[in-house]
Write a structure and sequence with these properties.
InterPro entries: Nitroreductase, Nitroreductase-like. This is Nitroreductase family protein. The chain has 194 residues and is of the alpha+beta class. It has a single domain, classed as NADH Oxidase (3-Layer(aba) Sandwich). Strands 1, 2, 3, 4 and 5 form a five-stranded antiparallel β-sheet that branches. The N and C termini lie far apart (42 Å).
């Protein structure tokens, strides 16, 4: 199985027993456009499919570009994200069904469950040697119109881009400075026990 190149962890401080897959996951913006196979996309999607969800509702829906639709998907990103995402292999969006299929009642956990599917998708992509960058900088109205979504029934959660890491040595100094994994807040700032 392919694995990602080692990420410089010098700026990170994981506990010694934390699985490196979590620590090495990051969201670069410097890619090289290479073809991605349907099989690889399907493996990533299958990992997401096994994610936990409230009442096993699995409210997520993934929209992912192919070669023919790439430009249309790219246009659904804000301009700043288009600048780097145009060098990726695929662009996608995740939406959440807002009602439970079992009874039609509102599903207040749909976005949370999509987050679980998103993380599974990312980690599986990394295991296949791909990087994934999630985006909030998307054109929600264009996505709703482009896919004919009913915004009362389906919420646009996020966008993402998939690609292979580019050769940073050819990037300008500012880009090279930004294209490193960032730090995380200490555990003590996010946890209360007892």
């Amino acid at each position: 199985m392919n694995t990602l190149p080692a990420v410089d962890l010098s700026k990170r401080d994981p506990l010694s027993d934390t699985d490196p897959r979590f620590v090495q996951r990051w969201s670069p913006r410097y890619f090289q456009p290479v073809p991605i196979s349907d099989h690889e996309i399907n493996v990533m999607l299958d990992a997401a499919r096994w994610s936990p969800s409230c009442y096993n509702e699995q409210p997520w829906h993934f929209y992912i570009s192919d070669e023919r639709s790439f430009a249309r998907y790219l246009d659904m990103l804000v301009e700043g994200n288009q600048a780097w995402a145009k060098h990726t292999s695929a662009i996608g969006f995740i939406t959440a069904r807002q009602q439970f299929s079992r009874n039609g009642k509102p599903n207040g956990f749909a976005a949370f469950d999509c987050g679980a599917a998103w993380m599974a998708f990312c980690l599986q992509a990394n295991q296949l040697g791909w990087y994934v960058h999630g985006m909030g900088g998307i054109e929600t109205d264009k996505i709703i119109d482009g896919f004919g979504l009913d915004p009362d029934a389906e919420q646009v959660i996020m966008g993402f881009a998939i690609g292979k890491l580019g050769d940073l040595s050819s990037a300008d100094a500012d880009t090279r400075e930004k294209e490193t994994p960032n730090q995380r807040h200490p555990l003590a700032t996010m946890v209360t026990r007892g």
